[in-house]
Amino acid sequence: MRNLLRVNMTDLSVAAESVPEVWAKYGGRALTDAIVYLEVPADTDPLGPDNKLVFAPGTLGGTSAPNGGRLSVGAKSPLTGGIKESNSGGVAALALARVGLSALVVEGVPAEDNARYLLVIESDRSARLERVDDWAGLGNYEVADKIAALRPEGDKYATISIGPAGEAFAKASGIAISDPKGYPNRFAGRGGLGAVMGSKGLKGIVVSYAGTKSLAHADKEAFAAASKRFSAALKGHAVSGNALPMYGTNVLTNILSEAGGLPTRNFSSGTFESADAIGGETQRDTIMARGGDVGHGCFAGCVIQCSRYWVDKEGHYKTKGPEYETAWSFGADCGIGDLDEIAELDRACGDLGLDTIELGATMGVYMDSGAIAFGDAAGALAALEAGLEPGNELRVLWDGAEATGKKFGVSRIPVTKHQALPAYDPRSVQGIGVTYATTPMGADHTAGYTITANILNVGGSIDPLKTEGQAELSKNLQIATAMLDSLGLCIFVAFPVLDIPEAFTAIHEMVEAHTGEKCDPDALMQLGREVLTMERLYNARAGFTAADDRLPAFFYEDKLPPLNVVFEVTDEDLDSVFDFVDETAAQMGLK
Amino acid sequence: MIIQLALFAYLSRYHPDGQGGRTARPIDVADGATVGDLIARLGLPDGPRVVLVNGRHAGDGQELSDGDRLAIFPPIAGG
User: Fold this and answer.
1) Which chain A residues are Cβ-neighbours of B50 within 8 angstroms?
2) Chain B closest CA to A434's CA: distance in Å?
3) Cα–Cα distance list, A537 to A36, A75, A83, A105, A473 (Å)
4) CATH 3.60.9.10: which residues of chain A?
5) How far apart are CA A447 and CA A82, in angstroms?
6) Which residues in chain A are contacts of B72 at CB distance < 8 A?
7) Does the beta-carbon distance from B75 to A238 stay under 8 Å?
8) What is the pLDDT of residues A2-29, one digit of tens each?
9) Is domain A245-407 given the CATH code 3.30.1360.40 in the classification?
10) Is the CB of A563 inside 8 Å of chain B's CB atoms?
């Protein structure tokens, strides 16, 4: 029997429930989606009392499954207006799973506007809301310190928090999750879920897992055997076993720039002259020269260990990474060619509680308006922080690229379903364009990461400059990713899984051995299809149509230098991606 | 003929001018040389690679032309 916790911010009640049997196979994204699908009316105000904020570890969360510790956070998104699952590393998924929670559901809004609460979940699963009004306006790092001061010596706990941006209901605000060292530097960044948490008066959550154990399995030996094989595959693959731990995600900067797909200066070019200065190799060299840390996991049980800490010139911790997406968004997309400047912007977003992908893309749009110059990092930082001042017009930056572009009269606004595009230009990487256009998440690269076959020759090769095969590639990856997100697996396991059949086998063997329920490749793919089906049906109810599954016009019209290409995948191909939804909905008994 | 060669990540040490680094530098190749010929000449380790010629993916069989920009990456990925 699995447990979930409901917390009501209106009457401040906390109640434990069983997870309904019909959701037995659902964890992570599948579970957050199911709860939002069933319980949040699709036409509700995302900042109102009827939205719900759901946190769920994956099916493998809290076990010793390698790389099974990701967290899903779900709600109706204030940014996209559709269903959202925002996925994060850090220790919260493990903490929730180990105290025996499959989900935490936060409902309602506080009776008093200025109320701030901290939700405390102890390792025996008891939970209470504490009033923390004087924490209003604190940055995430200070919240982490405040929570540390409240916890007993030697406690093991995860923190989940919002900064002033979430409290201000900013549409680009995210939710910070603590990493193994307690830094609040992992993020459920996309889609404005920080604002949902802010609208519920919830400033922070602490989940203590001291004294808890790794979860038991239905078949301990089978699990251990599959887990060992999975770990070996992750470590043996050149990407997950070597390149990622060595260079981190930012190793992508040079190859994307070389392939003409690194969106530069608000998507006006696909190559950045300073790419190498902000790329993963330079990042690694610099961190090591300054005595910093390269190659650690963002949660216990990760065997890939691609994370690193950026340190300043004096060797002091500044922020994590920065990740490729942030090195791009505040780097190439803003014409900034300096990792220290990018790290400063990353840290500021982390503390304010803002999605770096959205804010970097937003800053690129803002620079394109001429208000500040491309490359003006100091101006960017000032603009970012201006939102703290009540009534400052630059508060609009915290609402994302579309709001900013409209306010400042910029015609090149790179968003789909109102969410900013990440670090790959769809004109020179046509497959990711299909994902951006069609995923129910809004422009999201992780939802169906075609960069694998389009650029990296992982899981095959599909020419990024042609339209052939892109829709099928995106569809299959969207299904597989929805499945991985539901199991709690880091999507970087996809790199070895796409190349090594035994790695995929190990996944369904671990799920079966842990749950005691039969699980095979068909079951895994069905899980992925069910997740996407819930999302598509919800979005349709929220008013989305085929017109929302398209890219902005300029991607079809403006040739992207240096390859001088446009996005050419047909509407027909885009509309074919979800051809399985009707059948899957019927199988699920949904309409 | 002269092409520009850039080697990335842990391949940069294989640049024939011995300078390491990732900037593209000119090297002399025989007329009609292919990508595969050059890779053999550089002594790159066996295994998967990504090769881009003038920004487009290229296989080992692709013939090089004067002024081409050749970029070679070991297996890498990110997010």
Assistant:
1) 255, 455-457
2) 17
3) 12, 15, 10, 21, 22
4) 3-208
5) 15
6) none
7) yes
8) 999 999 999 999 999 999 999 999 999 9
9) no
10) yes
Which CATH number do you get for residue B24?
A: 3.10.20.30
CA-CA-CA-CA torsion for A193, A197, A198, A202, nearest 10 degrees? -160
Q: What is the C-alpha to C-alpha distance for residues A577 and B6, in angstroms, rounded to an integer?
A: 37
Residue tagged 């995430």 (tokens): A140
The answer to whether A247 contacts B77, with C-beta atoms less than 8 Å apart, is no
Check if the beta carbon of residue A485 is closer than 8 Å to that of residue A493.
no
Read off the tokens for A454. Answer: 């389009």
Residue B78: closest CA among chain A residues belongs to which residue?
A: A249
Distance CA A349, CA A361 (A): 13
Q: From CA A303, how far away is CA A83, in angstroms rounded?
A: 31
Q: Which residues share a beta bridge with A310?
A: A319
- Of B8, B12, B48, which has the smallest distance from its Cβ to A255's Cβ? B8
Sheet containing strand B25-28, edge to edge, reads B25-28, B2-7, B69-73, B50-53, B56-57
Quote the pTM value.
0.98
Nearest to B55 among A250, A259, A449 (CB): A259
User: Structurally, what CATH architecture does the domain formed by A3-208 represent?
Assistant: 4-Layer Sandwich (3.60)
* A251 with B76: Cβ contact below 8 A: yes
User: Is this prediction's ipTM beyond 0.90?
Assistant: yes
Tell me what pLDDT residue B78 has.
83
**List of residues 6+ apart from A220 with CB closer than 8 A:** A513
